Structure formats: C-alpha cells, structure tokens
Batch of 2 targets.
Target 1
Amino acid sequence: MLPAPSESELSRVGISLPKNLLEKFDEIISLRGYSSRSEGIRDAIRSYIAHYQWMADVKGERQGVITMVYDHDQRGLLQTLTDIQHDYMNVISASLHAHITHDRCMEVILLRGDGSDLKHIAERLMSQRGVESVKLTTIPIRD
Ligand code: NI
C-alpha cells in the first residue's frame, strides 16, 4: 500500500502493551523482515484501518460466519459471550464450539441478516477482554 502524502509528517506516541503481546509482535516483525518495530506498528495500524473500511462495506442482507478464539479462563467471559449471542438470536442460526487447549476455545457462529448487525456482533465480541481474535466473513444474498 502506498503511503498517503500526509504520512510524511510523523507524530510520536507512547503506548503500554502486555509483555507477551509485544514479544509475539516482535517475533512476527522479525520473521517478516521489518527494519524496525515502528515500521511494523505503522503497518499494523494501516491494516487495522483497511480492515475497518472493508467492514464498513458490509451491508444489506448477508450470510456470514464468525470464527472466534478466546480464553475460557477469563472471568465472566463465557457468560458475556453467551449474552451477546442471545441478543442477536434472530440473526444467529447456529454455533459450534471446539476446545483447542485447556484454556483456549474456538467458536464458529453462523449468521444471516443485515450486514450492519453482523458487523455489530463481530465488533462486540472482539472488544471483550480475553477474546483473542474474531474473524467475520460474509457473502451477499442474491437470487
Ligand atoms: Ni472450550
């Protein structure tokens, strides 16, 4: 992706990150051959923005699937995830749970409904502490 002209002006930010998150990030940027951590973070932020913009295009009647990985030991998380899914029972057709390890779970959720609802569910799930990843894939419904 070509950097926008405005990207030539740099701002400095200080952020706090969990140690293991930073270690994982450093490992990946080193494997991918980034020259610096800053460059890796800039790229990660660009992908985050691109992903958000891609999500913004999800509208209209859609069939979709959410794949979510979470920490089953996170206090209260199971209850919260269940509550969120019940809030959207008209959109969620089914879910499948797989135990990955002792403390990690994977859930696959099948959905059908308005794109904005599908995104909203994905975003609510994603924002919970203890949720490692949420991936939403959708296709438009046509006859
Ligand atoms: Ni499980």
Note: The chain has two domains: 17-55, 60-140.
Target 2
Amino acid sequence: MLTGKTAIVTGSTSGIGLATAEALAAKGCNIVVNSYGDDTADHQIAADIASKHGVEAVYVKADMSKPAECRDLIEKTVARFGSVDILVNNAGIQYVAPVETFPIEKWDAIIAINLSSAFHTAAAAIPHMKATGWGRIVNIASAHGLRASPNKSAYVAAKHGVVGLTKTIALELAGQGITCNAVCPGFVLTPLVETQIEDRMKEEGLDREATIRDVILAKQPSKQFATVEEIGASVAFLCSNDAAQVTGTTLSVDGGWTAQ
Ligand code: NAD
C-alpha cells in the first residue's frame, strides 16, 4: 500500500536514516535522501536506492539546523514528486558533557537539529498531507525521550521535546488520515554510538567488549544493540495501513531499557 508514496527521511546518508530509507523504498516508496553536504557520495546513495528497489530516489541537500532549509526540503520534494506522504524526522547529533561545562553552541545545535527541525518540516509538510487526506509523520526520538542519563542534557531535553511534539501533532491531526508517532530506539550501533564507545573506552580504561557490555549497554537489559534494520522496519510498520489508528504514541525498540 505504500507503492508510489513519497517519503522524506532527514539525515539519511548514514545509520538509522539510511536503513529507514531502504525499508520504505523496499515497500515501494519514492525516496528523498537528505543530509547537509552535497558530495557525489550523497547523490550516489539515492541512485543506489533507486536501482536496488526500482523506485525513484533523489538526494536533496538541506541543513536541519537551519529553519528555512528544513521548510525548503519539503517544498523541493513537492516540486519534484507532487506530494509528501511520509516524513521521517531522523537527523540527529550527540554531545556529552556535564551541564556546567556543556558548550553553548553544542546545546544550540542539538536543540536545532534534534528538535526544532521536526517542528519546521512537519509545519511545512502538514498542509500537503491534508490536501491528499493521508500522511505519516514518524519522529526518531530515543529511549532518551523517555528516560534521562547524566551528561546528555541537550540530547535528553531535545528527545523529550520530540515526544511532546509528536503527541501534539497527533492530536491536531486526529481523524484526518494523518498520524504522528515516535520510534524510541535504545542503543543502535551507528557512527553516532561508535564515537561514544571510543570516548568511554578512553575514560574507563576498558577494552571495547567490556565498554560495550558494562558501560554503553549498562541500561539495556538485552545487552544487545538494536539494528538499524529493526528501526527501519518499525518505521515502515507505523507508515502502513495496519497502523492507521496508532497515533501520538512511542514505539520503544530498546531491549527492555524503558521497562525498568
Ligand atoms: P548517524 O550519525 O549514523 O546519522 C545521522 C545522520 O544525520 C547522518 O546522515 C548525518 O549526515 C545527518 N545529519 C547530521 N546533522 C545534520 C544536519 N544538520 N542536517 C541534515 N542532516 C544531518 O546517527 P544515527 O545513530 O543513525 O542517528 C539517527 C537518529 O537516531 C538521531 O536522531 C539519533 O538521535 C537517533 N537515535 C540513535 C540511537 C543510536 O543508538 N544510534 C539511539 C536512539 C536514537
């Protein structure tokens, strides 16, 4: 049922975003791949998705820290495909430091990219979804949208904000064929987490295996990373007709973290 739908995945040149773009393309969606660069490699990702899944896919550069570029991403998509049916707000960054030394520019960047971008893209996409009477907005939040950890003030604040934004959008659109939900992954092994593993190995003086088991996955009872493919499949489910009455909620994919 997703064949021919147009899906935008922000921050989709890597990790969860790329796997989500692949999962939606496998369901027949045309895809807008996005990041803030404009390299040949970025455009090649879209070309590879198109040829692998037999859909149309384009790369559109837009820096999710900039409100005008967030909104322009939607308008460029509509100009190219005629609609935006699925919006996955995935772009995100991380920075770890105690509040009192947390750099102001890192706070501002995390709030802009991880939270405000979802407001701007949704605001621009909703009128187009209302015009067709069908839409799916999926925000990639985090277990940190539901629980806190020390030294991640900006990330935890932004992700809690994303969960609140998700519920509000869902209520505003209830009954209009448009749903809004958040996927809340625990730890997923992507470049964003690789950096944390390397930093914590140095801090704790542990080897990689012990750092992953005892530090990174300390709060994740399964002691296993979720995979990017599992997150992509969760997004695809929330975009399906089976999920038409699933709105304003969070889907945790966290190995039991938030059951605690
Ligand atoms: P990643 O670093 O692999 O990918 C992040 C993507 O966002 C990249 O494509 C990057 O180019 C893009 N991006 C970064 N800044 C951008 C900007 N200003 N404008 C446009 N694109 C930008 O990270 P990931 O682990 O795949 O994370 C994806 C999302 O999942 C993030 O929102 C993250 O917070 C969330 N998440 C990740 C985990 C995890 O364990 N990896 C857990 C929970 C939630």
Note: The chain has a mean pLDDT of 98.
